[in-house]
Amino acid sequence: MSKTLFRKFLQRSVSRGRLGVVYADGSANTFGEPATGFPEIVLRLTDDRVPRDIVLDPRLGAAEAYMDGRLVIEEGDIMGLVTLLRANNAWDKGGDLGKPRLSRRLLGRVAGAAEKVNNAVRSKDNVAHHYDIGNDFYALMLDDEYWQYSCAYWPTDDLTLAEAQRAKLAHIAAKLMLRPGDTVLDIGCGWGGMAIYLAQNYDVKVTGITLSEEQHRLARQRVEKAVVGDKVSIELVDYRAFAAAGRKFDRIVSVGMFEHVGQPQFEEFFRCCANLLNDDGTMLVHTIGRMGSPGSTDAFTRKYIFPGGYIPALSETVAASEKSRLIATDVETLRLHYGKTLRCWYANCIANRERIVALYDERFYRMWLFYLAGAATVFEFGGMCNYQIQFARNRHALPITRGYMAEEEERLLER
Predict the structure, then answer these.
(1) 8 Å CB contact between 201 and 169
(2) Enclosing domain of residue 353
(3) What is the gyration radius of the CA atoms in the chain, in angstroms?
(4) Which of 10, 23, 73, 79 is the most exposed place for a label (fewest CB within 10 A)?
(5) pTM of the predicted protein model
């Protein structure tokens, strides 16, 4: 029965491109037709449980089968497989729209129930699960200049990963409209790349905060190595506790952190930020987002990658900020930039396979490739994007036209 359902699932899922499947009993099926731009993949399933596991939960079932070596890719690779499946059912494929099925709405609510708590203790554990796996690993995957573990920015296609990450930092810095003597808070500062960049290019004081002990340790070392220790401090603290101390800043920047806040804490996050800002202060939030309505995190990501994480829709993000009278002064949607970034990280992991396996094991390596492939393709064909949202507390805090952003970005990139 599970094999029959599995065949029907793939018949519905693959029409363009070719997917060959060899089952544990030696039988085989082929799905789809050759099509320009669509991969051709051949899989071998080593036991009879794989079809059942995938039918029950396609993403988690396929991931665990691949991680355990029960789903073997004989021709192609995991990026090609996920690309084939996602490209056949693109989120923005057009056509007429119907009402979502009741069963799908109910399933989304049940799946999201586990995401409803993200207090300070649980938040620190969730951050450690992902970011404290080891700085040696991230050194193999990220750019070697600013260690940016977030979407790069590609004004042209011919940039290296490091150049695109530097372009992202300039893009964000231009939106902050920094002034000499400004104080800046970097919430979720990672390995200190943004703080270092701002200190190198502006006469400002930057405070970075993180919940990751590994990031905190290395970020402080990187600050000293960059000789900006007089302008940058890195603290190991939750943003809620930091806000309670009553400090004020002229600017706040948060890149790739809002995804970890958790939907029930959105209003608290923006309230803390509003209280941390001076009355004429501004803030830039860079976050992964949903292009559609609010949803839930899939089981694979919740279990293995970002426990407690939640990708927000633009609607719920802005709605939460409105409660703190933060004015959304500018919103930009980055549609394809993260797909390009993730493919660079994927290529780096492929190039460093032996070193990653030596650090962890083959199962971890396959898990990470599956995560990167899924993430890249959800930005290319699925419903994910990146939002950069600029906020101000006062309507007079920023120029009333956007020209200053492009001028400052150009100045920074020419340096």
Answers:
(1) no
(2) 118-414
(3) 22
(4) 73
(5) 0.93
Residue-wise pLDDT for 378-413, tens only, equals: 999 999 999 999 999 999 999 999 999 999 999 999
Domain-located, residue 143: yes
The per-residue pLDDT for 280 is 96
Q: What is the DSSP string of 363-387?
A: HHHHHHHHHHHHHHHHHHTSSEEEE
Return the amino acid letter for 390. Answer: Q
CA distance 182 to 66: 50
- Residues 240/270, Cβ–Cβ less than 8 Å: no
CA atoms of 180 and 231, how far apart (whole Å)? 12
Could you tell me the two tokens for 155?
């004004």
Q: What is the 3-state secondary structure (H, E, C) of 172-222?
A: HHHHHCCCCCCEEEEECCCCCHHHHHHHHHCCCEEEEEECCHHHHHHHHHH
3-state secondary structure of 300: helix
- Tokens 């492939």 correspond to 373
With b meaning 16 or more CB within 10 Å and e meaning fewer, what string describes 338-357? bbbbbbbbbebbeebeeebe
Strands 277-290 vs 384-392: parallel, antiparallel or unpaired: antiparallel
In angstroms, the CA 409 to CA 172 distance is 8
Instruction: Report phi then psi at 406, rounded to 5.
Output: -65, -40
CA dist 64 and 54 (Å) reads 9
Is 329 within a domain? yes
- Which CATH number fits the domain that encloses residue 344? 3.40.50.150
Contacts of 395 (CB under 8 A, 6+ apart): 327
Answer yes or no: are the C-beta atoms of 184 and 178 closer than 8 Å.
yes
